[in-house]
Design a protein that fits this description.
Elements: E1 3-8, E2 11-16, H1 21-27, E3 51-54, E4 61-62, E5 73-75, H2 79-94, H3 103-106, H4 114-122, H5 126-133, H6 140-146, H7 150-153, H8 166-179, E6 195-199, H9 203-214, E7 218-222, H10 231-234, H11 243-254, E8 259-261, H12 272-277, E9 281-284, E10 290-291, E11 304-306, H13 307-315, E12 325-329, H14 333-344, E13 349-354, H15 365-373, E14 377-380, E15 382-390, E16 393-407, E17 413-426, E18 429-432, E19 436-437, E20 468-470, H16 482-500, H17 538-541, H18 554-561, H19 576-581, E21 600-601, E22 607-610, H20 619-627, E23 633-636, E24 643-646, H21 651-660, H22 662-666, E25 672-674
Parallel strand pairs: 1-5, 6-7, 6-9, 7-8, 9-20, 11-18, 12-13, 12-18, 13-14
Antiparallel strand pairs: 1-2, 3-4, 3-5, 10-19, 15-16, 16-17, 21-22, 22-25, 23-24
Helix pairs in contact: 4-5, 4-8, 4-18, 5-8, 6-8, 9-16, 13-14
């Protein structure tokens, strides 16, 4: 063999005569996408991903099957190549019935690897579980207690009996880690010398600070309140989120080297322009601290409070004089926090005024149920018509009786007044929890939306100002759940890091393969009861702000985590197919039609074979025949109906298969899984 030179994408490289374009490129650190090639096996050329253009050649060449010649000029990413590769990937993915990630992860706004950390909890590895969680959520003990867990709504365990208790398991692992001798502490990258200022120390600001500090940047958080935590500290009652737990998690972020400055108001103690001047990038994460108006006569009376103000005062250690009779207007989780806090502040009669029925209430059902247990009186299908006062103070609230009409834009049936029908309640205090607003005081140069929130590009959270980003309740559509704010903070931190390193800050939504399932697919699963969180009795808990939940026992938590069906692909992080599918936008749906039969079987004894994930690259068949020299696997059928199946002749063959596993090692899609 002699040395030859070829040019790939403008770079001259050397190789040996007789080698393929793909081999020479790989030897020189240039990856040409491929799925069916392996250096130890004969050339197959089936996947069509390794196509390239060669100067002077009219057709596209398969790099794995084309022997390179001296002086060849190759291009691997021309528009023509990309089009061909895109079509090949779309055809493959249109018949790929597998889950890249479980529906729990895909429906977590922060995209946590739920399956990953549940497995570690099941194995008793809480520190490893926390390490996985903190890749996306740096406050797991706090989030696990307060998150309304959209992940659980999509848990496929519901097709068997009940979804997993994902949120509480997150808190369980985090609590154990915090209580350990050496809680998990990630390593920070080498100092970059870049300075990032974050305005707001709530869940979004703290999360962004965590990830930016890990990236090696110097981070300072400015917050107007006496302590960090934002709504976690001042908007959520102690009985739901003990502040000692939150404090430990904030301290862990501070120990990474994040500088935290409290009692600093932008526009008063320091100007926004001064912060910008002294920073390489700025993140605005100021939250939504203003309550929305009830919009009825009498709301200016003494005794009418916003839920945000009320909860903040209580969390500051004060006890507002709310009297004996309290009306809370609203049906969300903030309304539940306010009404249950009012009970603990000594109110004897607490009413929740909500214009729809319980079925439409956005609050978690468990929150409504526990509020009822604590004596809260729910007045569904009522709406404030007037707050009546005496000597400038609240005395009564007049309620319009409502009924449900046609569905509105949200899909819920619209509440409409029942003409001439009212009810009046004697009250000392009215607490409004119908919404939150952002106050952008001091941020005069930042562009706002028509709703008064900070306008930010949803693809990278960049505002109208150079180097200024925004995240959390203050942005775009306004206040939402904490994990939404954390998800935005993750994106903002990623964009800021890229910005500071001079890299592109556009991050397209990744493509994932999702498997369609029904209850029938889980008919053979053993039914295992969901773990029930032990709680204090209503009579005991309503008298103080001690934590309502008592926590899972060790046995409960481990067994609950073992209920996970492990829907996501075991090979996701190493899967070549999904990595290539995300190199360019693909639309597999345009090739949807007949699909191969999808099933799993374990005839290979130590290997589970998922036919739905198989792309017929034939690597496993060739590895079994050429490398292992056994020929246990083979192609069965003709044309589109071709599948790969194992054939066993005798027990000795099965024994050989158990000790080989070469087919699973070489599979590029996770269709073959080694069983533990």
């Amino acid at each position: 063999m002699s040395e030859i030179k070829i040019t790939v994408n403008g770079k001259e490289i050397t190789g040996q005569s007789g080698d393929s374009i793909l081999e020479i490129a790989a030897q020189n650190g240039i990856e040409i996408p491929n799925l069916c090639y392996n250096k130890n096996l004969k050339i197959y050329g089936a996947c069509g991903l390794c196509v390239v253009e060669a100067e002077g050649v009219s057709k596209l060449l398969r790099a794995c099957a084309t022997v390179a010649t001296d002086g060849m000029v190759i291009r691997t990413n021309t528009p023509r190549v990309k089009r061909a590769r895109t079509v090949a990937l779309e055809l493959l993915m249109s018949d790929h019935a597998g889950d890249c990630k479980g529906p729990c992860s895909l429906n977590c706004p922060a995209r946590t690897d739920v399956q990953g950390y549940l497995k570690q909890i099941a194995l008793g590895n809480d520190k490893e579980a926390v390490k996985i969680i903190k890749e996306k959520i740096p406050l797991p003990a706090s989030v696990g207690r307060v998150c309304p867990h959209p992940c659980e709504e999509h848990c496929r365990r519901k097709f068997v009996e009940e979804p997993l208790s994902v949120a509480y398991l997150k808190a369980f692992a985090a609590d154990n880690d915090l209580a350990s001798a050496e809680p998990y502490k990630p390593e920070t990258a080498k100092a970059t010398g870049k300075v990032v200022s974050i305005i707001g120390g709530g869940p979004a600001g703290l999360s962004a600070a965590y990830y930016l500090r890990l990236a090696g940047h110097f981070v300072t958080i400015y917050d107007a309140m006496p302590e960090m935590g934002g709504m976690f500290r001042y908007g959520i009652p102690e009985y739901r989120l003990p502040k000692s737990v939150l404090a430990k998690e904030i301290k862990a972020i501070e120990k990474l080297g994040v500088l935290m400055k409290n009692n600093v108001s932008i526009g008063k103690d320091i100007s926004f322009e001064e912060i910008r001047k002294n920073s390489d990038a700025v993140l605005v994460a100021i939250g939504a601290w203003k309550g929305s108006s009830i919009r009825c006569p009498g709301e200016e009376l003494e005794g009418v409070l916003s839920g945000i103000d009320f909860l903040r005062e209580v969390n500051l250690g004060k006890r507002p004089d709310i009297g004996k009779n309290v009306a809370v207007v609203g049906g969300g989780n903030t309304a539940m926090d306010a009404c249950r806090t009012a009970v603990r502040c000594g109110a004897e009669n607490v009413y929740v005024i909500y214009r729809r029925t319980r079925a439409e209430a956005p609050a978690e059902d468990i929150e409504i149920e526990e509020a009822i247990e604590e004596g809260v009186n729910f007045k569904f299908l009522t709406n404030p018509a007037e707050i009546i006062g005496e000597n400038g103070k609240v005395k009564e609230i007049k309620l319009q009786i409502m009924e449900l009409g046609e569905p509105d834009a949200s899909g819920r049936r619209k509440p409409v007044p029942v003409e001439g029908k009212f009810e009046t309640l004697e009250v000392d205090t009215v607490i409004s929890t119908i919404g939150q607003k952002c106050s952008a005081f001091g941020l005069d140069s930042v562009e706002l939306t028509k709703w008064g929130t900070v306008a930010a590009n949803e693809n990278n959270m960049l505002t109208n100002l150079e180097g200024v980003f925004a995240a959390g309740d203050a942005t775009n559509n306004g206040a939402s759940i904490a994990v939404d704010a954390i998800a935005e903070a993750n994106l903002a931190a990623k964009a800021i890091d890229a910005y500071l390193n001079g890299l592109p800050i556009e991050f397209p939504e990744p493509y994932y393969s999702e498997k369609k399932v029904t209850e029938k697919d889980f008919s053979g699963r053993e039914r295992i009861q969901r773990a029930v969180m032990p709680v204090r009795t209503p009579e005991k808990r309503k008298k103080n702000f001690d934590s309502v939940i008592l926590g899972f026992s060790e046995e409960q938590a481990r067994n609950e985590a073992k209920r996970c069906l492990e829907c996501g692909c075991h090979d996701f992080k190493e899967c070549k197919l999904i990595r290539y599918a995300n190199l360019q936008p693909i639309v597999p749906e345009k090739f949807k039609g007949s699909e191969h039969q999808s099933f799993t079987e374990r005839k290979l004894v130590v290997i589970e074979r998922d036919q739905g994930k198989c792309i017929l690259c034939n690597l496993c068949v060739r590895a079994c025949k050429e490398d292992a020299q056994k020929g246990i696997l083979g192609l069965v059928g003709r044309g589109f109906n071709t599948v790969i199946k194992p054939e066993f002749d005798d027990p000795e063959t099965i024994s050989v298969c158990k000790n080989c596993r070469k087919c699973a090692d070489i599979c590029p899609t996770g269709a073959l899984k080694i069983l533990e």
